[in-house]
Amino acid sequence: MQVLVVDSLAHVRQQVTSLLRQHGYRVLTAATGYEAVEVVTQNAEIGVVICDLVLPGCDGPDLLRRVGEIARESDGESVKPPLVLLMISPTPRNERETLLSQPNMACQMGFEDVFGRPPERERLLAKLESLQSQFVPRAVSKSIDELRTGVDAVLESGDPHVMLEVRGELENQIHRLDVALEDAAGPEFLRRSAAKANSKKLTR
To answer: Do residues 46 and 32 both lie within one domain?
Structure first.
């Protein structure tokens, strides 16, 4: 999963981008809403957009609507629109910003969540981690299906030559599955998941 950070201020883009890359996320940036629409259109791997409410030419709500209308495909299959996280300055400048700074109102409009600008570090990381499960299954489902087919072939065949051939193919599929998992979730997410699994084992 890739993350697109959209903000007209370079230092805000840099701050958010640096934080996410430190935690293993692949990040793209855009300075305007129009630029963000173009980037999302050309990249089916973008799963989350983090955008400022006020953007040149195309503001946050308009960007939310536009990316929701983009038709994207990956491996011949349609890809759902990215989830959009809204950033609002700590001191709202008008009634509209005050209204959208309330998470329930922003979510009613279609935003996944609302954050300060720049976002609170730990809260943003926790939110992104909670969203990962929505993207990992789609990224690896094809590899899992191929693995199941290979296992069935091994079970049905008693020929040692066939079994050896299928074993080699299974090893290739396992490698591709590992790559797909890392591409979808990022190495930092996989590291944290492994740490959680080990922690559960130790507490049993």
So the answer is: yes
- Tokens 């129009």, residue? 34
The tens digit of pLDDT for each residue in 74-88 reads 777 788 899 999 998
Question: CA–CA separation, 52 vs 115, rounded Å?
Answer: 9
pTM metric for this prediction: 0.69
Query: How long a stretch of residues is the chain?
Result: 204
> How many domains does the chain divide into?
2
- Where does residue 86 fall: left (phi above 0), alpha (psi -120 to 50 degrees), or beta otherwise? beta
Residues 129 and 145 in one domain: no
Tokens of 69: 């209308």
DSSP 47: E
Torsion over CA: 73, 62, 57, 84 (sign) = negative
- Please calculate the CA angle 27-132-79 and round it to the nearest 5 degrees: 75
102 and 198 in a single domain? The answer is no
Residue that is last in its domain, among 134, 164, 185: 134
- Please tell me whether residues 140 and 182 are part of one structural domain: yes
- Alpha-carbon distance 183 to 75, whole Å? 15
Structural contact between residues 83 and 47, judged by C-beta atoms closer than 8 angstroms = yes
Omega before 56 within 30 of 0, i.e. cis: no
